[in-house]
Amino acid sequence: MDYNTALDAAINRLHEEGRYRTFIDIERRQGHFPHAVWTRPDGTQQDIVVWCGNDYLGMGQQPVVLNAMHEALDATGAGSGGTRNISGTTVYHKRLEASLADLHQKEAALIFTSAYIANDATLSTLPKLFPGLIIYSDALNHASMIEGVRRNGGAKRIFRHNDVAHLRALLEADDPKAPKLIAFESIYSMDGDFGPIREICDLADEFGALTYIDEVHAVGMYGPRGAGVCERDGLMHRIDIINGTLAKAYGVMGGYIAASARMCDAVRSYAPGFIFTTSLPPAVAAGAAASVEYLKTAQHLRDKQQEHARILKMRLRGLGLPIIDHGSHIVPVHVGNPVHCKAISDMLLSQSGIYVQPINFPTVPRGTERLRFTPSPVHNPRMIDDLVRAMDGLWSHCELNRAEISA
Fold it and tell me: Is 0.85 topped by the overall pTM?
């Protein structure tokens, strides 16, 4: 086989479909988020404003976080030196897990190198703990959840997105004595819509199922202490396993689950993705813990972020741009064509210094390509004005539909 020819063909298919992805070389400016510097392919540089980052609240630039990381780095050095079982557990890791358990009002928490690994490792391990387990997974769950469910070797059922009636039908069709788990998300990031948490918890109670929720796009952002949508809606006590990230609203790196002490103990003891992975550097764990603690009392940041999201939605909707609005902090604008989506993204960057990455298949279904904006508390009114004006002009330039699509 000519391996190089096969690789070329695979890459060329992406180019032909208009969905080849390129890395944008940017350097964030400490203390000046969302400003950054873009280094073009020719080596020249341009000041830009980042509109698609997951550092939702600017905590990656927060002095409290940076100071905690500097102190831990000076005290311990760079890496952790091992897995959690072999020399890689420090006071910083234990402190972070205690803070997360307190945040979600659970007995324990377990940190991983990313929320992807936390989902994959946990969901692929649960059938080892509950023989015969059936996992019921929302059709639009994140790739990490899909991968964990796929790899676990157990039975799985896929229910239509947010379709509680379909979930009920699947539960009713299975052996009532079989162990069951329902896996879903609180906020689905591509459309910004919310999962029917209360209704799913009711079904879980009725059918004796465990509940597993991904709050990755909600932790830090919702609830009086930033514990997520489940906290906002008074439902944390009804969720058995909560998955979250430290790399979005908390602005650092890592992921975790929060659950009963027994559940966390079993997962840490059986999950290869936990056992055989070097633990987070102590400085990262220290920064994440500082961020979690800070956001437990920083409602002003959540309020400002929500305000900016509402303003941006209102301004874009006023121009007739087809935003997808489910009431969350995420602002997707439907384009519906991968070539146009990439072209608008490129022109926003090169002409206006506005960076938003195109979202194409397979992240979203074909025909639903979009630009996904994530306003933060530090995107000021002038930045919003610049973005709205640029989008207005490019929408006309590309002769795109201005009729709003339904949420």
Answer: yes
C-alpha 373/C-alpha 7 separation (Å) is: 33
- The values of phi and psi at residue 86, to 5°, are -125, 90
| Chain-centre distance for alpha carbon 68 | 24
Cβ proximity of 92 and 289 under 8 Å = yes
pLDDT tens for 306-330 read 999 999 999 999 999 999 999 999 9
Residue at 203: amino acid letter: L
Tokens for 331?
């602002």
Convert the pLDDT of each residue in 19-52 to its tens digit. 888 888 999 988 899 999 999 989 999 999 999 9
Distance CA 162, CA 143 (A): 17
Section 125-131 average pLDDT: 95
How far is residue 342 from each of residues 98, 337, 371, measured CA to CA in Å?
A: 43, 9, 9
- Cα-atom radius of gyration of the chain, to the nearest Å? 22
Q: Is 362 exposed, middle or buried (0-12, 13-18, 19+ CB in 10 A)?
A: exposed
Q: Which of 248, 304, 313, 342 is catalytic?
A: 248
Q: Please name the helix (run of DSSP H) or strand (run of DSSP E) that holds residue 391, with its range, or none.
A: helix 381-397
Tokens 């956001």 -> residue: 295
Could you tell me where the DSSP H helices lie in 77-174? 91-104, 115-129, 143-151, 164-173
Cα–Cα dist 69/83, whole Å: 20
The answer to whether 168 and 195 are in contact (CB under 8 A) is: no
Annotated catalytic residue 248:
yes
Any idea which residue has 């069709």 for tokens? 173
Task: For 57-114, write each residue's pLDDT tens digit.
Answer: 999 999 999 999 999 999 999 999 999 999 999 999 999 999 999 999 999 999 999 9
CA distance 331 to 341: 15
Overall size of the chain counted in residues: 407
Mention every residue, 6+ apart, whose C-beta is less than 8 A from residue 317: 323, 325, 404
* CB-based burial label for 385 (10 Å; 0-12, 13-18, 19+): exposed
3-state secondary structure of 99: helix
Centre a 10 Å sphere on the Cβ of residue 219 and count the other Cβ atoms it contains: 34
Distance CA 319, CA 84 (A): 52
Tokens read off for 26: 């940017």
Nearest to 267 by CA among 245, 240, 246, 286: 240
Q: What is the sign of the dihedral through the CA atoms of 268, 270, 272 and 276?
A: positive
